[in-house]
Amino acid sequence: MPQTIILKNVELLSDCDELIQTDITISDDCITGIGTAMEAGDKTRVIDCTDKLAIPGLINTHTHAAMSLFRSYADDMLLMDWLENKIWPAEANLTAEDVYYGTLLAIAEMLKTGTTTFADMYFYMPQVAEAVAESGIRAVLARGMTGLGANALQSLAESEAFYHEYHHTANERITVMLGPHAPYTCPPDYLKKVVSLAQKLDAEIHIHLSETAGEVENCFKQYGKSPIELMSELGVLDCGVLAAHCVHVSTEDIQIMRQKQVRVAHNPGSNMKLASGIAPVPQMLAAGLCVGLGTDGAASNNNLDMLEEIRLTALLHKVNTRDPLVIPAQTAVKMATAFGAQALGLADKVGRLAPGLKADIVLLDMDSPHWCPRHNRLSLLAYSASAGDVHTVIANGKIVVENRRLTTIDEEKLLYEAHKRSMRLTGK
Ligand SMILES: CSC[C@H]1O[C@@H](n2cnc3c(O)ncnc32)[C@H](O)[C@@H]1O
Ligand SMILES: [Zn+2]
After folding, report:
1. Do the annotations mark residue 296 as ligand-binding?
2. Fewest CB atoms within 10 Å of the CB: 13, 62, 91, 324?
3. What is the pLDDT of residue 52?
4. What is the pLDDT of residue 14?
5. Does the keyword Cytoplasm apply (predicted)?
């Protein structure tokens, strides 16, 4: 029997950003009505939403969920030093079960901070999918691949098997992409194999591109072109690409990205912490690119809080351009919702509150001093809200956070397991 939930007297922002107080009706996994709800029947759960603001579930377009196990392990370093000397050696010891618990830890944090969809690139992806399936979150999963080393061909084969086994599973909550790590770990011949596989499967690609100045400089030295130009030449950009970072992209690169409809995952927190630079987001948006927001892994952020990324996005680009209008609150919020959905190929399912879309809904508790006075809900959401305001989270029509508590995850057991495994992995 499909369950019906009515969110009674909830506040929400319409597509035209008008504030409305109304009811949202959820039947099974979908939003079926926005407007005064019909009389509740026996099987209907009515939730009083006085003083609650409903927003679409937030969409994290780039992370490595299980890296939550490495949070606070290696900080204040540049990307390549951090990867080569701290992260990759520690990741070499990861087991499938570690990745399961690391991913579940990340999912617990994401759900409690209002994220209902994430795009992940990592190893041991069947265990990632298991954590996604049982927690109720939505995810776009990619088995990370590097073309250097003994596992290069095996990870291609694993990616193919993972795609066949998990694409469109968990009630359609899981979709699968291919995940070549980056141009500096995937040489051209390897990327050509990835492109062939993507064409065979009709799969899209999630890849790190142009994250640091050093990456772009080395790419010019090695191939005489930028990472974007190289990817274009190799056919990678013809597969449908979600490109993480794009910090050091030129005007010419942006034109290519526009032509190839590359979608960008902007990760302001990680880019700031790793001192990678500031992505030209205003230029990318002005060129018509789809730019979503991501946290990157919790080891380089050091949290998975998308409300924080919204705020960072709105602030960072203002101070960088000295133009307060460059990314207004509304744009930053859209980047974490509607644009994020588009970036992940899920715009027909999530990212907005509208009848017919999946019921991925976050209720923020506005009954706090930092929500007073309420001149402008969008402004409050972008500049004043914080993770502690996330009261209730509904993912695919199911309540996964209720009164700030997880309903699908045993948090106490999870923290014990995650802490124990993290200590072993980092030799502590
Ligand atoms: C091959 S699985 C993903 C791989 O990416 C590493 N990683 C984490 N953060 C970053 C980043 O900001 N840039 C590049 N690579 C990153 C992660 O440790 C995994 O090894
Ligand atoms: Zn990353």
Report:
1. yes
2. 324
3. 98
4. 83
5. no
Long-range contacts of 333-338 (CB under 8 A, 24+ apart): 333/55, 333/378, 333/381, 333/382, 335/266, 335/291, 335/292, 335/293, 335/310, 336/58, 336/59, 336/292, 336/293, 336/306, 336/309, 336/310, 337/55, 337/56, 337/58, 337/59, 338/56
If you measure from the C-alpha of residue 243 to the centroid of ligand 1, how many angstroms do you get, rounded to a whole number?
Answer: 13
Q: Are 243 and 183 in the same domain?
A: yes
Decide: pTM greater than 0.80. Answer: yes
Q: Which residues surround ligand 2, an ion (CB under 5 A)?
A: 296
Instruction: Give the CATH number, domain containing residue 164.
Output: 3.20.20.140
Complex-level ipTM: 0.99
pLDDT digits 0-9 by tens, 383-416? 999 999 999 999 999 999 999 999 999 999 999 9
Same domain as 368, residue 274: no
Ligand 1 atom 5: the closest Cα is on which residue? 181
Its domain, for residue 367, covers 4-55+354-406
Around ligand 1, the residues with Cβ closer than 6 Å are 64, 79, 83, 87, 91, 121-123, 144, 146, 181-182, 208, 211, 270, 296-297, 300
**Range with the poorest average pLDDT among 148-152, 355-359, 391-395:** 148-152
Beta strands in 1-80, from DSSP E residues, in sequence order: 4-13, 19-27, 30-34, 44-48, 52-56, 58-63
**pLDDT, tens digit, 9 for 90 and up, residues 85-139:** 999 999 999 999 999 999 999 999 999 999 999 999 999 999 999 999 999 999 9
Known binding residue 370? Answer is no
Q: 222 in a domain, yes or no?
A: yes
* Atom nearest to 245 CA in ligand 1: 12
Residue 123 Cα to ligand 1 midpoint, Å, equals 10
Query: Do both 306 and 260 map to the same domain?
Result: yes
- Tell whether 91 is in a known binding site: yes
Whether residue 411 lies inside any domain: the answer is no
Q: Annotation-wise, does 143 bind a ligand?
A: yes
CA of 370 to the centre of ligand 1 (A): 36
Q: How confident is the model at residue 2 (pLDDT cuts 50, 70, 90)?
A: low
Same domain, 130 and 224: yes
> Among all ligands shown, which has an atom nearest to the Cα of 152?
1
Closest by CA to 125, choosing from 176, 75, 53, 84, is: 176
Q: Is 386 left (phi over 0), alpha (psi -120 to 50) or beta?
A: beta
Q: How far is the CA of 299 from the centre of ligand 1 (A)?
A: 10
Regarding whether 63 and 42 lie in a shared domain, the answer is no
